[in-house]
């Protein structure tokens, strides 16, 4: 039985074999430029042809005389030697020269499809569907055994909520993933959900090609349910990002967005209760003012008010009558007193006058008895205020 090699031994043997194989020390490869990353003094990128990919690196890029603009989607020709990465144990090409061959057919197809969708209004902002503030029923399209599910759910579970997750497990890269994602969108869109999240874990931009699929883009646009794209990239946008109602970057960011308002629900509830209390207080205050106005108006129409007025008027009239009667009595008493005084004076005068009456005959002789007179005698009756002549007719 052969002795087993350790991983390090195998890698060292493989690197030594590459160094001694003339075919791998100077290779020329053409492919489509993709997945460009700058890391310190080095630049990493990939060459792809369909679903076949090979990694490349230019060490100490700035020190090399390379006049080239790295752009995704162009065909290039590279020269270099085969290399084994000690950290990832992946084969790559250490590139010494690179030259442009023009845009690839695949990238030109992508640009044409992007322009077509744009003209059809797939990316218009006014056609984006509004996402519920507190989504309760959430659809999740991602790989069942990937890190995306764990990242997404761990964020969702950080705060108390009643969110119900409907997972549609699919492959998120490779040729078999296209139709699976379409089917998942159709299935979840029929479940009357608040939002659908399409997400994936980390990976190179090469893995994102599935999210430029024509059928997927059209199904997302047709869906009545709002859709969030969170497919783990920072630089390049896929067609899914452009057509989705909201574009985020990672499963964690998508989960944070879904749970964001739930995190503030206690604060929002308190604020809402305060607003409701203020509103009720204002309504009560307005109603109180109206009630006071009605009460005042009711008082103005109260018969008791008229009765009080009439009572006051009657009281005033009685006072006036009492005063008039008293004044009249006083006046009459004064008049009676005056009359009485006058009568007394007249009586005294009459008494005096009675004493001063005298009767005389023609000879001016006083007569003191009726027997001193005969019928036909002329007499002179003298009073205190004058005298009169008279003739006796019955004597």
Sequence-ordered SSE layout with sheet pairings:
Blueprint: H1 7-20, H2 22-25, E1 27-39, E2 42-49, E3 52-58, E4 74-84, E5 91-103, H3 105-119, E6 137-142, H4 147-156, E7 164-169, H5 177-189, E8 195-199, H6 214-222, E9 227-230, H7 239-243, E10 246-248, H8 251-263, H9 265-300, H10 303-355, E11 358-361, E12 378-383, E13 386-391
Parallel strand pairs: 3-5, 6-7, 6-8, 8-9, 9-10
Antiparallel strand pairs: 1-2, 1-4, 2-3, 4-5, 11-12, 12-13
Helix pairs in contact: 4-8, 5-6
Protein model, in words:
- The structure is a single chain.
- The protein has 395 residues and is α/β, with parallel strands linked by helices.
- The protein has three domains: 7-103, Nucleic acid-binding proteins (OB fold (Dihydrolipoamide Acetyltransferase, E2P)), CATH 2.40.50.140; 109-123 and 134-263, 3-Layer(aba) Sandwich (Rossmann fold), CATH 3.40.50.10550; 356-391, no CATH class.
- It is built from ten helices and 13 strands.
- Strands 1-2-3-5-4 form a five-stranded mixed beta barrel. Strands 7-6-8-9-10 form a five-stranded parallel β-sheet, with helices on both faces. It has a three-stranded antiparallel β-sheet with strand order 11-12-13, with no helix packed on it.
- Strand 1 (27-39) and strand 2 (42-49) form a beta hairpin.
- Helix 5 (177-189) packs parallel to helix 6 (214-222).
- The longest helix is centred in the last third of the chain and has 53 residues, at 303-355.
- The protein starts with 6 loop residues before the first helix and ends with a strand.
- The model has no long low-confidence stretch (mean pLDDT 83).
